[in-house]
Design brief:
By secondary structure, the chain is mainly α. Helix content is 71%, strand content 3%. Strands 1-2 form a two-stranded antiparallel ribbon. Helix 2 runs antiparallel to helix 3. The longest helix has 32 residues.
Length: 140
């Protein structure tokens, strides 16, 4: 036995705000952005532990630094955007800027690892180096 619902009755169950396409588009974009924020707040410290072997103090600093821009700039930036207008363009630019900054992390890591492998061994400030660097007993 199947239950059928008239189309008009189904639409009466949907809140009026969700019937507007502009709001649904805004709501879905903000939901995706928030999910990305939460994933990156978990993934960055995890990458720091796995790739950089961060200790607990460094993990605490990293967790604090993740939220620092929101604490310092959110109130002032919100007031500035409200006065300026163009909220949609500002939100899109902010999300694209955040994506570019997050994408720069693996790019910088790859650049550093390629550069570290291809750099000639001059003996300066390299582990195991012979001149002014770190020998087997530590910094000289």
């Amino acid at each position: 036995m199947s239950i059928t619902v008239a189309p008009g009755r189904l639409m009466s169950r949907v809140p009026p705000l969700l019937r507007e396409t502009a709001f649904r588009r805004y709501w879905s974009a903000q939901s995706i952005s928030l999910a990305g924020d939460q994933i990156s707040s978990i993934a960055l410290p995890l990458a720091a532990v796995l790739a950089l072997h961060a200790n607990p103090a460094e993990m605490g600093y990293l967790s604090a630094l993740i939220w620092l821009p929101s604490l310092l700039f959110a109130l002032h930036a919100g007031a500035w955007v409200d006065r300026r207008g163009h909220r949609r363009a500002t939100m899109i630019a902010a999300d694209l800027g955040r994506a570019a900054l997050l994408a720069s992390i693996p790019v910088c890591s790859a650049w550093y690892s390629v550069r570290a492998r291809s750099a000639p061994s001059s003996g300066r400030w390299s582990p195991g180096g012979s001149r002014r660097g770190w020998g087997s007993a530590g910094p000289t």
